[in-house]
Amino acid sequence: MMSGRKVGDLRVNEQDRRAVENIALTGMDIDGLYVCFPNFPMEEIKQIFNETRNQSEDGEDSNVISVNCS
Q1: CA 3 to CA 7: how far, in whole Å?
Q2: Distances (CA, A) of 47 to 33, 40, 68
Q3: Could you give phi then psi for residue 4, rounded to 5 degrees?
Q4: Is residue 64 within 8 Å of residue 56, measured between CB atoms?
Q5: CA–CA gap between residue 15 and residue 20 (Å, rounded)
Q6: CA distance 68 to 66
Q7: Nearest Cα residue to 22 out of 2, 37, 41
Q8: Residue 46: CB partners within 8 Å, gap ≥ 6?
């Protein structure tokens, strides 16, 4: 239970942010991240997703792994 706080009031801590980044790097789309992290603010997940994707696309020797979990 969420001790009286609204979902929009929650902030993603550093450990959770890294988890979102790592899952985004596996190829999961933004909608999948919303499902995996329902208690995190959608705006913050979107920001982390976009930052992670932009960094991986900008890196010359970055390795992107796409995983189909179906």
Answers
A1: 11
A2: 12, 12, 23
A3: 75, 5
A4: yes
A5: 9
A6: 7
A7: 37
A8: 30
Tell me: the pLDDT tens digits for 9-56? Answer: 457 899 999 999 999 998 899 999 999 999 999 999 999 999 998 876
| Overall pTM surpassing 0.85 (yes/no) | no
pLDDT of residue 49: 94
Amino acid at 1: M
Alpha carbon 65 to its chain centroid, in Å, reads 15
Distance between CA atoms of 22 and 28, rounded to whole angstroms? 10
